[in-house]
Design goal:
Distance between the termini: 24 Å
Helix content: 25-40%
Order of helices and strands: HHHHEHHEEHEHHHEHHHEEHEHEHEEH
Number of domains: 2
Radius of gyration: 24 Å
Oligomer: single chain
Structural class: alpha+beta
């Protein structure tokens, strides 16, 4: 069984039990992986997190301002990288090294290998770093929350801090015939044995055992990437010997994409009952939105954090998952969401024409309703979510539904408290 990330970090003295508990509580309310929440809280260094991820998955790990080869980025389509949470790193002939959020997911590696037509070698990297690189390489926006400031801030001349972001490889024309890394170089990195034992690998006698500590040189901080045309040989030589993941001989053709059928609506009594037994935050969103669809045409949940309200989940006519995911409303700008967060009181009425309100309606598929209902959801004594609902273009919200939603907002707060109690 794979060792838990928190245990590895504690064993290495990379963070404290109190920090792990705070990150788990953060995860309950705001979602995301444990490592991402630790970074967000400033409770762990990125290098220590990368080292622990490498140990957990039994692969080398990278962190810092990683330089991506344009040729590597060019062989993988943006939609595949986005869906699989990977970013191409190095290319040598038929071999492709990728940074992966979950380098142990064989289904994902199958898809990447098939889409790229290359043998794939997966390395570990913190989720936030992969997301920052997806933005740089493909322009894919991910909600990095408070981490994005630290990851994207330019380096000050002669000072400390994150390295200057390299120009997007996707913006530069790739030279298909040239590799920045030869097959021999790649073989020297990945094909030889005995470079160092991978964490979790069985000893020579075939018996399992306690994962050995990962050597320090398995972690590569490429923080001067903008000054280096290609990864230097000593950096490449530090990567572990590891068999690649070959493209499947045959992969079943993907069926034409069909929108997921919307789950059936829930009445108020069932929604209250479901909220009493939820075990993770996703179940809260599904329950609330299913009930909302019994009374409204469109419904949306936003997460409030770091001075912005970001799309979490939505349901209803014209509401797309991708549009919801890309929604970000800065707080402090005039709008109904900002009003509800500031006053911690619900809003029911016509929607004023402001920039934030127009963006909100656009992400919901367009169309101005006659009025809308917006509710704050509290946890830890502050607004952590905002619920929005309307009756579609020109539609009028039934005032009779407001009472039920106010009660449900209180039950959601109680569900958060129950989840938080489990990790304290």
């Amino acid at each position: 069984m794979r060792t838990r990330l928190g245990e590895l970090l504690l064993r290495a003295g990379a963070c404290t039990p109190h920090a792990i508990r705070d990150a788990l509580e953060n995860q309950v309310i705001f979602g995301g992986r444990l490592g991402t929440n630790l970074l967000e809280l400033g409770a762990v260094e990125e290098g220590a997190l990368a080292r622990a991820l490498g140990q957990q998955h039994g692969v080398p790990a990278l962190f810092g301002d990683v330089r991506l080869e344009p040729e590597a980025v060019a062989v993988l389509r943006a939609e595949v990288a986005d869906r699989c949470d990977v970013v191409p790193f190095l290319l040598a002939g038929r071999r492709l090294a990728v940074l992966a959020v979950d380098p142990s997911d064989l289904r994902v590696l199958d898809e990447v290998a098939f889409a790229a037509g290359r043998e794939v070698h997966a390395l570990a990297a913190p989720e936030a770093r992969v997301w920052a690189l997806l933005r740089r390489a493909y322009g894919i926006e991910r909600q990095l929350r408070g981490i994005e400031v630290d990851f994207e801030r330019p380096r000050r001349a002669g000072g400390a801090g994150p390295a200057r972001a390299a120009p997007s490889p996707a913006a530069r024309p790739a030279a298909p015939a040239a590799d920045l890394m030869t097959e021999d170089d790649f073989e020297a990195v990945y094909g030889r044995t005995g470079a160092f034992a991978l964490p979790g690998a069985a000893p020579a006698d075939g018996r399992g055992g306690e994962p050995p500590e990962l050597p320090d040189d398995a972690i590569l901080e490429l923080d001067e990437a903008d000054e280096v045309a290609a990864p230097p040989p000593e950096v490449l030589a530090a990567l572990a010997a590891r068999a690649g993941h070959a493209p499947p001989v045959r992969l079943a053709p993907a069926a034409p994409a069909r929108p997921e059928p919307e789950p059936s609506p829930l009445d108020f009594r069932d929604a209250v009952r479901f909220l009493e037994g939820v075990e993770e935050r996703g179940a809260i969103a599904r329950t609330v939105l299913r009930h909302a669809r019994s009374r409204f045409r469109r419904a949306l949940l936003l997460t409030v954090q770091h001075g912005a309200a970001r799309g979490w989940a939505g349901m209803g006519e014209g509401v797309g998952a991708e549009a919801v995911r890309r929604l970000r409303l800065p707080l402090g700008a005039p709008g109904i969401v900002d009003t509800v967060v500031r006053t911690r009181a619900h809003f029911l009425g016509p929607i004023p024409k402001t920039e934030a309100n127009v963006l909100l309606l656009k992400r919901l598929g367009g169309g101005v309703p006659a009025n809308a209902l917006v509710l704050p959801i509290l946890a830890r004594g502050r607004v952590v979510n905002v619920f929005y609902a309307d009756a579609g273009r020109g539609g009028l919200v039934d005032a009779g539904a407001v009472g039920e939603l106010l009660i449900l907002a209180t039950r959601i707060s109680q569900s958060y408290e129950a989840l938080l109690a489990r990790v304290r």
